[in-house]
Amino acid sequence: MNSKPKRRKNIRLKGFDYTGNAYVYFITICTHDKQQYFRNAEIAKIIKDEIEFRMIKEIQLLCYCIMPDHLHMLLSLTEDYTKKGEGKSAGKGTLQNWVSAYKRYTSRIANQLFKIKPLWQKNFHDHVVRKEESLLKIAAYIVDNPVRKGMVSEWEEYLYSRIM
């Protein structure tokens, strides 16, 4: 019997440099075991507030939608954030590090206030947006998510979705 632990498959785009601020990313982060934690308005507000707080220095957010069991964002990293990756701290200003920090902070708050542990699944899904028409389609997909799920009739009615 092989006692080596199974390695998680790397789901990042092979050979892609995730440190630049010239890219727009479509990311999806799912809750642990697809638990519907964000049906709780207090938890959803924490997730929303932290996204909007991080917009100040770390990300340029185009849109987001917080669904009951996952979060979609369309974003790019700011130049200030990606510059963290220069010199001795090379690699610090990457998308993966940003998502990890976001998940770590929101997980800590959810655990302190609601005894939820773990909040998020281990990985996240990303797609590098390469064409402007894709950007518009993805933004529409993100904000229309609650409409497709029958939660609201118009995306503007949904409290946890926003286009910047």
Count of individual beta strands? 5
Order of SSEs: EHEEHHEHE
> What's the overall geometry?
globular
Strand composition percent: 15-25%
Please tell me how large the radius of gyration is: 16 Å
Describe this entry's structure for a reader.
The structure is a single chain. The protein is an alpha+beta fold and 164 residues long. It has one domain (24-163): 2-Layer Sandwich (Alpha-Beta Plaits). Helix content is 34%, strand content 20%. The protein has helices at 41-54, 79-82, 95-114, 132-148, and strands at residues 24-30, 59-67, 70-77, 125-129, 161-163. A 5-stranded antiparallel sheet has the order 4-1-3-2-5, with helices on both faces. A hairpin with a 2-residue loop joins strand 2 (59-67) and strand 3 (70-77). Helix 1 runs antiparallel to helix 3 (95-114). The model has no long low-confidence stretch (mean pLDDT 88).
Concise structural overview:
This protein is of the alpha+beta class and 164 residues long. The protein is 34% helix and 20% strand. The longest helix is centred in the middle third of the chain and has 20 residues, at 95-114.
